[in-house]
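Hi D.,

Good news: the full-assembly prediction came through. Inputs first.
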Amino acid sequence: MAKKKIRVEFRKNRNKPPRANDITVQFQGDAAVAGDAQSGERVRAKGDISRHRTIIQDDTGEPMPSMKDGGESRVGRVLRVQGLLSAVELADGSVVRCGVRRLLKSLLTDERSIVTTGDLVTIRLGDRPDEGTIERVEPRRGVLTRASRRKEHVLVANVDQVVIVMSLVQPEIKIHLIDRYVATAYKGELAPILCLNKADLADAVELQPMIGAYSQMGIPTLLTSARTGQGLPRLRELLADRATVFSGQSGVGKSSLLNAIQPELALRVKTVSEQNQKGRHTTTTAELIKLETGGWVVDTPGVRQLQLWDTRPEEVEMYFREFRPFLAMCGFPDCTHTHETTCEVKAAVRRRHLSERRYMSYLGMFNGLDEE
Ligand SMILES: Nc1nc2c(ncn2[C@@H]2O[C@H](COP(=O)(O)OP(=O)(O)OP(=O)(O)O)[C@@H](O)[C@H]2O)c(=O)[nH]1
Ligand SMILES: [Mg+2]
Ligand SMILES: [Zn+2]
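Then the structure:
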């Protein structure tokens, strides 16, 4: 099934039929091998990427311009992606502007995230030392992903943790969104950190139970203010020597927090005159930034909503980790924890061993995914 789908996509996007013919044959062969190796597995985002990689590595059909030139190959990390060009940093610190190898590019229209911020890539240098071509993308670990127009959008790759930034006010805190973020983090194998910002503007007393609950789940939860510096020493500590992505709605203060942590960054933040313009994103591309404390962070544009990518409703329980001890005790092994009378998760909520608020989030995500 999977290989068929790829073949169709490839043909649809093929723009040079005569030459591409040989590749298609090779492509199908490789896809078949890759497909066999993965049989029994669902077609997942990660699977897609590795299949593409196989194809790219093994293909020898088309003489790429850079190959004809015989440019040197180097490894580096993608700092940001703008359209079809990526800024790639090499080991010596130099930054090379890279296009994407033609075969990869033909897949780009269907697959939004062939190359993304944080990717480790192999490039081939072009005629000029500051230009090159991305030839290969290493398998990703630790990704922040969302569904965007029914496609997978990998916002960032190869990070350890995500700082989920919410503001207490302006914009108002959206608690249901936190649980979506936490689930997205676990799905992408990232450790979540919760950062409740603009603590200088509002009293967080009523939020203390919620803060306690997340902390108890092992999610560091901080009250911060980019303005007064509250909570920043702890945040700085959590970021040191790790790879982190900052994510959250537009205007919550992601860039402001990073500027407060490392002032010389001078990232663009929303100015007073822009503050009434709703829905405008101040940060427009995900950008990788090095930290003085070691490690790096990625500042991202705000996301309005977060749809889990490629998730079946019955998968959602896995991302509510505190449910785990109760799952095995449910009456049915495939209990959905919704209508079942023998459900131990529901019983635990009744007994207040599990948070009702978290359970409502679970239901929302379970049902939301069900409708898709
Ligand atoms: N009072 C107060 N204002 C803050 C704080 N953090 C950020 N702001 C203000 O909130 C506005 C938005 O901040 P940004 O840092 O641009 O927000 P962002 O999350 O990076 O937004 P996008 O880039 O659009 O996703 C700016 O006017 C900041 O000055 C804070 O802790 N306290
Ligand atoms: Mg920003
Ligand atoms: Zn159950």
